């Protein structure tokens, strides 16, 4: 029989709501292997053991998922309880005496491992999980040193057909130990009840039952969750063993959440991306784009400086390229120069480029997005950065989404919203078009006037929250939308930031913090510049075609729309090669470390502008990264305050400065959302367009949307 596990697991989680009941300051005495300790009364035995650093084996337990108690590996002996108990599901009680090192416990754990290994194939030499497999590690430490399995010449081990859950994940079901981590993750974190089990005991199988694919913006995390090699990463398959890989801590630049990631690389090639744990941002998850779009770095790379001659590009040496760039810039007046920042530009490059342009006498530095809804523009951080910590979103009880679909625009942010929906029973209201959400929402309408309906609803909330999509905060309707939302936020009279803007580009907050302006498209149309310096900005050239008299200097790592129009191309570095500082949508500064060296003659972006300054006879008083960091700290102390969420000041003043001249909504002012469905998620910018893996997955999502099982 098919068991989707969703309702069962949720009920199981409610049984253990004991862990959510906080009795601050209270502890109870227990004994662990004869050692007296004090632990909070809401702890399970597993939590108590882990806090005291006592090793206890487990397969099915995961601290961010509900308790299943499937594997029975965490059996412990409790004095006076008779039978052995599973540590993951039993709560502590006053005076409890726990033994994890008794002979009875060791024999039980050895027996459980033996039963698991009876059906487990000897695939270790060819399994991608080899060397980082929980079953291998626990078998060595807690298992027997010999096998009693003798039935191999008769029935043999269990053999089932392998399945492809998606273009990204391959299921080797012979290796599955039925821990159900993948099922619980899909149901509780992804919000899709696709995976479940059929059969029972020896015949139990994990799968999708109907011909449905496991497609989600967070699907890759089940590969990390799997304690064995049952779920494998298809793009990474057979590429390397984990002990052959070097590691570098980095930041995901495919969205603005600032997800902490780890780059695994070998021979100057990034082979795999894994999430890094950060309790206040991404917990231990990473989006599928952040994990698998990495193969885009090998496509259409710019590896040498080039000058356009007619319809062709001729390679140059760096000295000649910088000399030509200097001649282009100095040949026109300062008010005819304009710089545009792309979505992946780090703060070092933004600061250096702005210093060079400013020293030339020009103030026109812009990001591609527009956000002109307030008379203060972006002078206050509260007008463009989140006014609330991601972690606090899970405590909200009513959330209003205005013209945004966080599920695809910012999957990690959406994970916190879904957590509020699950654990805090938050009500979620939407103003905008119908989109694919992974929680129940109430639609209030799709035009600007529908936002006013939320005023009465949010007044009854203890902790309301308003999230506005950045696409709505433009010159056309931005003032109307933000005027209504600001009035609602002011009427709620809360001590925290109720109103927040959901951004999409990794460079957006850092650029505005460094003094860049919004609205590149308006600036291009109004100012008619003679020279444009593009820092990897491609999307803007899909909206605006430069006149023949306009010269473009393109500094970036990938050839696309921007480089097609460029008169001079200066090859820069990707985030895996240069590293750098990034501010996420909270305004939290985080540093990404470089992993590999840039290909060909590509150079670190900020060093390109440092060299260009010398050719232009400009004196920048920094020549290395250390002195550049000092300059960044002068511009904003937030740049030197790494890893910390900064409270936003003057949030109430920003609301008062909203340009209210045109705040009267019209029925025709309909909101739009760019990323409404899963197929819109995988290829959403130039970086992901160039990823073969993302293109293949987008095609699968498009085809699956047409299938009979799409709505099942």
TrEMBL record:
Domain 4Fe-4S His(Cys)3-ligated-type, residue spans: 104-143
Keyword Repressor set for record: no
Entry-linked CDD domains: fer2
PROSITE patterns to which the protein is assigned, alphabetical: 2FE2S_FER_2, 4FE4S_HC3, 4FE4S_MOW_BIS_MGD, COMPLEX1_75K_1, COMPLEX1_75K_2, COMPLEX1_75K_3
GO CC terms of this entry: membrane
InterPro entries to which the protein is assigned, alphabetical: 2Fe-2S_ferredoxin-like_sf (IPR036010), 2Fe-2S_ferredoxin-type (IPR001041), Mopterin_OxRdtase (IPR006656), Mopterin_OxRdtase_4Fe-4S_dom (IPR006963), NADH_UbQ_OxRdtase_75kDa_su_CS (IPR000283), NADH_UbQ_OxRdtase_ferredoxin (IPR054351), NADH_UbQ_OxRdtase_Gsu (IPR010228), NADH_UbQ_OxRdtase_Gsu_4Fe4S-bd (IPR019574)
Named cofactor requirement(s): [4Fe-4S] cluster; [2Fe-2S] cluster
GO BP: any one term: ATP synthesis coupled electron transport
Domain 2Fe-2S ferredoxin-type: start-end pairs: 26-104
Domain 4Fe-4S Mo/W bis-MGD-type: 245-301
GO molecular function ontology, one term from the record: oxidoreductase activity, acting on NAD(P)H
SMART domains: NADH-G_4Fe-4S_3
Keywords: 4Fe-4S, Iron, Iron-sulfur, Metal-binding, NAD, Translocase
Source taxon at top rank: Eukaryota
Protein family (similarity comment): Belongs to the complex I 75 kDa subunit family.
Protein known as: NADH-ubiquinone oxidoreductase 75 kDa subunit, mitochondrial
Organism: Heliothis virescens
Lineage: Eukaryota, Metazoa, Ecdysozoa, Arthropoda, Hexapoda
């Amino acid at each position: 029989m098919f068991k989707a596990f969703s309702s069962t697991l949720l009920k199981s989680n409610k049984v253990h709501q004991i862990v959510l009941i906080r009795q601050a300051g209270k502890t109870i005495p227990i004994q662990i292997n004869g050692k007296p300790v004090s632990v909070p009364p809401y702890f399970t035995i597993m939590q108590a053991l882990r806090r005291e650093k006592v090793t206890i084996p487990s397969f099915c337990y995961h601290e961010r998922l509900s308790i299943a108690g499937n594997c029975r590996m965490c059996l412990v002996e409790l004095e006076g309880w008779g039978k052995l108990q599973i540590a993951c599901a039993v709560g502590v009680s006053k005076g409890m005496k726990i033994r994890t090192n008794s002979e009875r416990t060791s024999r039980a754990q050895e027996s459980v491992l033996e039963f698991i290994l009876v059906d487990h194939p000897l695939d270790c030499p060819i399994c991608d999980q080899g060397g980082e497999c929980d079953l291998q590690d626990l078998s060595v430490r807690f298992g027997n040193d010999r096998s009693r399995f003798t039935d191999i010449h008769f029935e043999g081990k269990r053999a089932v057909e392998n399945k492809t859950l998606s273009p990204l994940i391959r299921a080797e079901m012979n290796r599955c130990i039925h821990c159900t981590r993948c099922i619980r993750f899909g149901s509780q974190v992804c919000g899709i009840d696709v995976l479940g089990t059929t059969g029972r005991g020896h015949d139990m199988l994990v799968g999708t039952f109907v011909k449905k694919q496991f497609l989600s913006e967070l699907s890759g995390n089940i590969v990390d969750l799997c304690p064995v090699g049952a779920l494998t990463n298809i793009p990474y398959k057979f590429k390397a063993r984990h002990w052959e890989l070097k590691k570098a801590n980095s930041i995901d630049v495919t969205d603005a959440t600032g997800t902490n990631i780890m780059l695994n690389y070998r021979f100057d090639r990034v082979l795999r991306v894994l999430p890094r744990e950060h309790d206040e941002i991404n917990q231990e998850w990473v989006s599928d784009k952040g994990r698998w779009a990495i193969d885009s770095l090998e496509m259409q790379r710019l590896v040498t400086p080039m000058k356009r001659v007619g319809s062709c590009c001729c390679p140059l040496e760096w000295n000649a390229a910088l000399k030509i760039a200097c001649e282009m810039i100095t040949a026109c007046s300062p008010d005819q120069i304009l710089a545009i920042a792309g979505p992946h530009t780090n703060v070092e490059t933004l600061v250096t480029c702005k210093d060079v342009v400013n020293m030339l006498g020009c103030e026109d530095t812009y990001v591609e997005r527009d956000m002109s809804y307030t008379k203060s523009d972006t002078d206050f951080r509260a007008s463009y950065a989140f006014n609330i910590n991601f972690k606090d979103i899970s405590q909200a009880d009513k959330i209003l989404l205005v013209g945004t679909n966080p599920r695809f625009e910012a999957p990690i942010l959406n994970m916190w919203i879904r957590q509020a929906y699950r654990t805090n029973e938050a009500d979620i209201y939407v103003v905008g078009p119908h989109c694919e959400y992974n929680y129940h929402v109430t639609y209030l309408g799709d035009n600007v006037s529908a936002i006013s309906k939320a005023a009465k609803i949010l007044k009854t909330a203890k902790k309301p929250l308003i999230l506005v999509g950045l696409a709505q905060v433009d010159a056309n309707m931005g003032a109307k939308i933000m005027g209504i939302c600001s009035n609602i936020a002011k009427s709620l009279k809360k001590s925290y930031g109720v109103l927040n803007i959901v951004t999409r580009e990794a460079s957006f907050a850092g650029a505005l913090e460094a003094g860049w302006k919004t609205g590149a498209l308006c600036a291009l149309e109004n100012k008619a510049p003679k020279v444009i310096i593009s820092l990897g900005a491609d999307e803007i050239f899909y909206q605006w075609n430069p006149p023949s008299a306009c010269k473009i200097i393109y500094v970036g790592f990938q050839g696309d729309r921007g480089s097609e129009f460029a008169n001079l191309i200066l090859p820069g570095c990707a985030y895996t090669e240069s590293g750098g500082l990034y501010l996420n949508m909270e305004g939290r500064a985080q540093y990404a470390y470089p992993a590999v060296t840039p290909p060909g003659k590509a150079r670190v972006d900020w060093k390109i502008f440092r060299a260009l300054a010398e050719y232009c006879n400009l004196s920048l008083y920094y020549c290395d990264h250390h002195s550049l960091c000092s300059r960044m700290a002068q511009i904003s102390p937030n740049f030197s305050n790494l890893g910390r969420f900064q409270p936003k000041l003057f949030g109430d003043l920003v609301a008062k400065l909203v340009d209210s001249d045109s705040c009267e909504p019209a029925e025709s002012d309909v909101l739009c959302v760019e990323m409404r469905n899963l197929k819109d998620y995988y290829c959403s910018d130039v970086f992901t367009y160039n990823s073969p893996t993302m293109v293949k997955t987008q095609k699968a999502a498009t085809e699956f949307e047409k299938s009979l099982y799409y709505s099942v």
